[in-house]
Amino acid sequence: MFSMDQPGAPQEARRNAIAAAVAEAHRREWAFVLAATARVTRDLDAAEECVQDAYVAALDTWARQGVPCNPGAWLTTAARHRALDTLRRDRTLRTKLPLLIVPGQRAAYGAETDDGSEVIADDRLRLIFTCCHPALAREAQVALTLRLVCGLTTAEIAKAFVVSEPTMAARVTRAKKKIAAARIAYRVPEAAELPDRLDAVLTVIHLLYTTGHTDPHGAGLVRPDLVERAIALARLLRELMPDEREVRGLLALLLITDARRATRTDASGALLLLERQDRSVWDAAAIAEGCALVTDALRGGRPGRFALQAAIAAVHAEAASYEETDWPQLLVLYDHLLKAWPSPVVALNRAVVVAMVSGPAAGLDEIDRIEQDKRLDGYRYLPAAKADLLRRLDRRDEARTCYQVALDLSDNAAERAFLAGRIAEMGKQITLQSGP
Amino acid sequence: MAQYAILIYEAESGYAEGGQEAWQQGMEAHARFAGQVGERGGKIVGGDALEPTTTSTSIRGDIVTDGPFAETKEALGGFYLIEARDLDHAIEIAKLCPAPFGGVEVRPIMDTSGG
Question: In angstroms, what CA-CA distances link A428 with A153, A238, A394, A417?
Answer without folding.
Answer: 49, 51, 13, 16
